[in-house]
Amino acid sequence: MPIATVNPANGETLKTYEAMGVEEVERRLQLAEATFRTYRTTSYAERASLLSRAADLLDEDQGEIGAVMTTEMGKPVVQARAEAAKCARAMRWYAERAEALLADELPGENDVRDSGASRVLVRYRPLGPVLAVMPWNFPLWQVVRFAAPALMAGNVGLLKHASNVPQTALYLEDLFHRAGHPEGCFQTLLVGAGAVDEILRDDRVKAATLTGSEPAGRAVASTAGEMVKKTVLELGGSDPFVVMPSADLDRAVETAVTARVQNNGQSCIAAKRFIVHADVHDAFAERFARGMRELRVGDPALEDTQVGPLATEQGRADLEELVDDARRGGATVLCGGERPEGPGWFYPPTVLTGVTREMRIHREEAFGPVATLYRAADLDEAVLIANDSPFGLSSNVWTRDADEVDRFVRDIEAGGVFFNGMTASHPAFPFGGVKRSGYGRELSGHGIREFCNITTVWHGA
Questions:
Q1: Rounded alpha-carbon distances, angstroms, from residue 461 to 250, 455, 457
Q2: pLDDT band at 75 (very low <50, low <70, confident <90, very high)
Q3: Are residues 378 and 352 in contact, defined by beta-carbon separation less than 8 angstroms?
Q4: What does the pLDDT read at residue 1?
Q5: 366 in Cβ contact with 319 (< 8 Å)
Q6: Which of these, 240, 144, 257, lies nearest to 435 by C-alpha position?
Q7: Residue 340 pLDDT grade (very low, low, confident, very high; cuts 50, 70, 90)
């Protein structure tokens, strides 16, 4: 894929970039290593001041960078501005809390005496340059949720962003530079996917984090395993959205529509499989299909647009293949399912029912505004359907029954279970998945410690 800004609303190529050569990548790796030697010794107060300044600048730039994201990947502009605001809040969250999250830990006195020590502590120390391989769907947020904790921990960042959001990638480097971070503290590498392996093999790169597809995650994990380097992977998701009879059906339907089409349906944590108890299935299906049908699809630069185009032409083609395969297998299309006429990579909000295990869409992630609807006879079948997926990122459950809550928490295979609401990420709570959705955690104290050298400091008696 060329490194270029291509407007998905009309297919027009607006700006192209040359990939950095070997010499420029080498210069930046040297700079990252040199900067880390001194940045690692800065105080939490110094780092917090820099990150807070970056947050202030991002707030000032909200309209400008929101428009860039909309142009580069088709995100509705209201959602783009909200993403920028969310990133600024996360920066401040880590600026205010990192020192406490990484404070020295003191084991119990009895354990210290038992070890023969006079004093023991556990200290969190930074690792060094961390490579971040990031996707286009949340081009600011995916990066900031890595960068904010990593920089506060004393690491430095190397960003390999998706090739279709180069302006956003360059903006991020410039943002941290304008905030006063030392040169080399956060750098964007404008390179293609083929360059990642060699960069990750470089001894100066100490760890890597990737958000993206399962094949990309496998490639990074394989190389990192060979080189014995720490990785955090957040891969695909096909999150279940379970509705039980005790649910507030009106709220469940309203939230289901938003959960499926947020970010034009291109979100790993978007609800994708809607599993509805037989007692309320038909009522839910009718209201859900109507809500999806009534969404305003159009130019993402307009304030009232709810669903814009898919980010890439190939992405739309992949989504169409999943829907067509399901239709050939006997699935019923309740709404949508046909590519519209005209320019741009638009695809209508679509609801499929009668999906079976043999259909590709049952086991593959539908990265776009396409929902699959299942009927569950009881709680046991709802859990079985929910877990019948290679992914386990997050999940949504609608019930007001306390016993059912306990069962779903115990039995759903996912990194999160959200009751009576929509899955969302927040800096205070760990984020990540199980199964083929990846491993490790981002955000919260768990996320900031992922790229730390957890060091036991033992003093003899």
A1: 66, 19, 13
A2: very high
A3: no
A4: 78
A5: yes
A6: 240
A7: very high
Q: What is the pLDDT of residues 268-298, one digit of tens each?
A: 999 999 999 999 999 999 999 999 999 999 9
Q: Can 338 be counted among the known catalytic residues?
A: no
187, 16 contact by CB (below 8 A)? no
Q: For tokens 């961390």, what's the residue?
A: 130
Q: How far is CA 249 from CA 156, 294, 341, in A?
A: 47, 18, 34
Q: Identify the active-site residue in 173, 234, 364, 442.
A: 234
Contacts of 261 (CB under 8 A, 6+ apart): 270, 292, 295, 306, 307, 349, 369
Rounded to whole angstroms, how far apart are CA atoms 242 and 456? 44
Pair of tokens at residue 64: 């400008």
According to DSSP H, which parts of 344-460 are helical? Answer: 360-363, 379-387, 402-411, 444-449
Active site residue 234: yes
Give CA–CA dist 338/348, Å, rounded.
7
Q: What does the CA dihedral 238, 139, 163, 230 come to, rounded to 10 degrees? A: -70
DSSP conformational letter for 273: E
What phi, psi does 173 have (nearest 5°)? -60, -45
Query: How do beta strands 391-392 and 434-435 pair?
Result: antiparallel
Q: Which of 87, 185, 268, 335 is catalytic?
A: 268
Q: Are 186 and 147 in contact (CB under 8 A)?
A: yes
Tokens of 230: 């720490």
In 3D space, the residue among 267, 257, 294 whose CA is nearest the CA of residue 73 turns out to be 267
Token duo for residue 457: 């400091």
Separation CA 36–CA 360 (nearest Å): 46
Q: State both tokens at 80.
A: 């783009």
Report the DSSP pairing between strands 156-160 and 186-188: parallel
Q: Report pLDDT digits (tens) over 199-217.
A: 999 999 999 999 999 999 9
Q: State the pLDDT confidence band at 133, using cuts at 50, 70 and 90.
A: very high
What pTM was computed for the model?
0.97
Task: Please tell me if the domain spanning 4-235+437-460 has the same topology as the one spanning 239-426.
Answer: no
- CATH code of the domain occupying 4-235+437-460: 3.40.605.10
Domain 239-426 has CATH 1.10.10.10: no
Q: What is the largest CA-CA distance in the chain?
A: 78
Measuring CA to CA, how many Å separate 228 from each of 10, 53, 259, 450? 44, 35, 38, 15
- pLDDT for 461: 84
Going from N- to C-terminal start, the domains of the chain cover: 4-235+437-460, 239-426
CA 193 vs. chain centroid, Å, equals 18
